[in-house]
Amino acid sequence: MNNIKTSFTIKDLENISGIKAHTIRIWEKRYGLLEPKRTDTNIRYYSSDSLTKLLNVVLLNKHNYKISKVANMSSEQIKITARELSFKLAASDEAINSFKLAMFQFDKVLFNNTYNKLLHKKTFREIFKDVFVPFLEHIGMLWQTDTLLPAHEHFISNLIIQKIQLNTEKLEYTANNRELTFVLFLPEGEIHEIGLLYLNYELALRGYHTVYLGQSLPLDNLGYFFDSEGNVCFINSMTVKPFEDKLLEYFEQVDNVIKNTSHKFVSLGNRAMSLDLSKFESDIKVFPSVIKFLDQM
Fold first, then answer.
1. Calpha distance 104→153 (Å, rounded)
2. Of 76, 85, 118, 147, which has the most beta carbons under 10 Å away?
3. What is the pTM of this model?
4. How many CA atoms lie within 13 A of 268 on its CB side?
5. Average pLDDT, the chain
6. How far apart are CA 124 and CA 116, in angstroms?
């Protein structure tokens, strides 16, 4: 657990909240909204509680609460008022901010209330594309800037996964297209599955028969499907695995297995976009994202 971030710089706060560091400092000095701590070497840093408070303040300020008024509230009043406001909002931008709050406060109730509010105005597909996708992209940016705590990302990812699974389960009894089976899996060592889970939902929505095999699956575990006489389209998603020096070897193994069959292989993600597919004898395609793949279906 020593690698989990427990303190934040003012630049971290800027990245997460969208509020410029200069403005944060003004709020801090003029209104006393935040109280930074200092290391033994006199470097300023902020706690997780300060980050959560800032997110609440930003939400209130965006909805016509003056900073001077917010500054007169206790931390608990700010939290409660922001939470009540979040429950009332359903627009995409507000929902994303509410999901941020839910993530940093480990607040499952806020997440579910925000999601259910969105359902009054949007379909699940619209929620995923208009809200979850930009929200997840923001999370990715926070990872790149070394801002996000792993525990927060795991918490919110699992809640999103639950919603995908619940909506997929409603569709799986209606699969009527058995001419082609989609087998979805992540390569060995790969665990980032939200995009692939959503693709499974989209395929089920279109009436296809899907087999979802999940995370970290070695190719030699797919023998049953490789040997199948039916038409199978294998789909995987690559975020970090296989590593660059193993990428070509991985695709050569796939090509060797399915080149004399009617099977297809699709890989999603930017990792494989640089490969020269003309070198392979089988039907192998790559797409930078789930959305791009769905656009060509």
1. 9
2. 118
3. 0.73
4. 24
5. 86
6. 10
pLDDT digits (tens, 9 = 90+) for 58-99: 888 888 899 999 999 998 889 888 877 766 655 667 788 888
| 87, 118 contact by CB (below 8 A) | no
Q: Which residue has the tokens 């050569």?
A: 252
Contact partners, residue 255, CB within 8 Å, separation at least 6: 280, 281, 282, 284
Bridge partner list, 47: 7
Mean pLDDT of 4-26: 83
pLDDT score at 12: 85
Distance CA 80, CA 242 (A): 45
What confidence tier does 1 reach under pLDDT thresholds 50, 70, 90? very low
Whether residue 2 has pLDDT greater than 50:
no
pLDDT at 137 over 60: yes
- Residues 201, 217: Cα–Cα separation, whole Å: 20
What is the spatial distance between Cα 186 and Cα 184, in angstroms, rounded to a whole number? Answer: 7
User: What one-letter code names the amino acid at 38?
Assistant: R
Per-residue tokens: 158: 């699992």
